[in-house]
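Lecture 7 notes: from sequence to structure.
We start with the chain below.
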Amino acid sequence: MALDKYLFTSESVSEGHPDKVADRISDSIIDAFLERDPFARVAVETMVTTNFVALAGEVRGPEDLDHEKFKEITRQAIKEIGYEQRGFHWRDCEITSQIHSQSEDIAQGVDSAEDKEEGAGDQGIMFGYATNETPELMPAPIMYAHTVLRRMAEDRHSGKVKGFGPDSKSQITLAYENGKPVRATSLVVSTQHDAKLSQADVREMVMPYFEEILPEGWMPSADEIYVNPTGRFVIGGPDGDAGLTGRKIIVDTYGGAAPHGGGAFSGKDPTKVDRSAAYASRYLAKNIVAAGLADKCTIQLSYAIGVSKPLSVYIDTAGTAQVDEVKLAKIAAEIMDLSPRGIREHLKLNNAIYKETSAYGHFGRKPTEQGHFTWEKTDLVDELKRQF
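Predicted structure tokens for the same chain:
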């Protein structure tokens, strides 16, 4: 039985968090390949630490993208984030690249041929989720956690606010009543800052962002608002902690409010269903909720490497469906081609659109004219309504 009242917490991390620096570099390399060849194959992992970056992975694409170009892309990504610190500087950090050609065994399982459709790039399970508790049809705790950090970063980049460093984390706890969020019970932000700023200074700088993003009347008491609770956060980013691609998968998705299949997104081209099928399942779930067919919707897809069709399509609306769930699952499997090729073509994933996904969540974002976040569109709503 569902609880009538409970607390739920989600966290986010900024683009300057060590793991997100790694995600940004990996996705920047993917974009570089897709700009030249929309059908390039890329699987790139990044590790960052004090003044050092290591790149590894398998690729198949334009030969002009070599180790020197990978290093150039890496430096540009670090510069865009804003790292010009003694312990991690875009110009001075050492970069090593062990990126090499894709395995022929993997390639033959994925490539299409006269007698087979293009197969999934790996086996796995992927989940998508949507809920009507926010306008973005996302869980409220993760949306607020993302938004406070994104707004801080925007003002840091524009120069509107001076003193913030690139590395920061947030954590938002909301009280739920009858399945809906009603107020915040605790707020946490830890942000890297200039050495001359005190903890009180940083708190004063952060408070307006909480007040801006939360609905009126949602602010908790002052003693439940924690800003840099350790007292000092000057050394941050890869100089303070090592970072790896794909280590913030719950931050990337639904903040723990929904299941996760386990596969990371960043560093993978769209033939990898860890990424593309997770986008497709979110797209379907969001359209189902946007159509008013359910208040919540979780969708699971599963794939086998080299096989084009999903092995299973599962839907759970947590008892909120306004229509027959059996028919809903059937329609969801039919309304979109869920083969790897079908997903890529429907959502236009063979474009250089991935750098923007590397921080502040892959979901709940606004689609752009340049083709970013196509899986957030609600263009299936009319067809779903027609089916019912």
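Points to note: The first helix runs from residue 18 to 36. The mean pLDDT is 94.
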